[in-house]
Amino acid sequence: MASASLQFFAFILALFGVFGDIAATLLPNWKVNADVGSNIITAITQMQGLWMDCTWYSTGMFSCTLKYSILSLPVYIQAARTTMVLSCILSAFGICVTTVGMKCTKLGGDTDSKNHACFAGGVCFILAGIFGLVPTCWYTREIISNFLDQTIPESSKHEPGGAVYTGFISAGFLLIAGVIFCSSCFKRQQGAWIYPPKQHHFPPTEQESTAGYNLKDYV
């Protein structure tokens, strides 16, 4: 019962991780630059994401521009696009597989099949967490290095946006969920290896004892 409830808790974490992963991939605020200037009325907020760049004006106007060219983008943005999409695909596949392998569901067949499916889903979550953690760390490193560079003007410097924090939290949820799923299946199999089923030794049959008794009577 405890293992089933722990798997359900890990499944909830994985769901939050999947939704956060998708949101972080689509949000345009991976890095933010607020330029107030001399007049608060003309203040603007520039946001850059993986797929589009957006500008928000203090007057209420909001405009976005899609990044159509792939080859013109920096390497870390191209890598972030690829790894975040892979993370979303793996995490969604892990949700489908763990739904079959969880103990609280009636899918997946016998216990061994459900354990294998649960373990495979946990591996998918771990890989999805790694694929989601790498681009967020790389993207944050680029933002910090540009911010600390004295040769770059202040108007071109940015800070990490909400999408980066969402990516970090989602990757953590996916990693925790994957470790819980894998460890729950591994402990069950390890217990079966350490404590093998006892072999019952049956006493000799009555026929043998009776045959021995008859031989003694003839002597």
UniProtKB/TrEMBL annotation:
<feature type="transmembrane region" description="Helical">
    <location>
        <begin position="117"/>
        <end position="141"/>
    </location>
</feature>
<keyword id="KW-0732">Signal</keyword>
<dbReference type="Pfam" id="PF00822">
    <property type="entry name" value="PMP22_Claudin"/>
</dbReference>
<feature type="signal peptide">
    <location>
        <begin position="1"/>
        <end position="24"/>
    </location>
</feature>
<feature type="transmembrane region" description="Helical">
    <location>
        <begin position="161"/>
        <end position="182"/>
    </location>
</feature>
<keyword id="KW-1003">Cell membrane</keyword>
<dbReference type="InterPro" id="IPR006187">
    <property type="entry name" value="Claudin"/>
</dbReference>
<feature type="transmembrane region" description="Helical">
    <location>
        <begin position="84"/>
        <end position="105"/>
    </location>
</feature>
<protein>
    <recommendedName>
        <fullName>Claudin</fullName>
    </recommendedName>
</protein>
<keyword id="KW-0812">Transmembrane</keyword>
<keyword id="KW-0796">Tight junction</keyword>
<comment type="similarity">
    <text>Belongs to the claudin family.</text>
</comment>
<dbReference type="InterPro" id="IPR017974">
    <property type="entry name" value="Claudin_CS"/>
</dbReference>
<dbReference type="GO" id="GO:0005886">
    <property type="term" value="C:plasma membrane"/>
</dbReference>
<keyword id="KW-0965">Cell junction</keyword>
<keyword id="KW-0472">Membrane</keyword>
<keyword id="KW-1133">Transmembrane helix</keyword>
<dbReference type="GO" id="GO:0005923">
    <property type="term" value="C:bicellular tight junction"/>
</dbReference>
<comment type="function">
    <text>Claudins function as major constituents of the tight junction complexes that regulate the permeability of epithelia.</text>
</comment>
<dbReference type="GO" id="GO:0005198">
    <property type="term" value="F:structural molecule activity"/>
</dbReference>
<dbReference type="InterPro" id="IPR004031">
    <property type="entry name" value="PMP22/EMP/MP20/Claudin"/>
</dbReference>
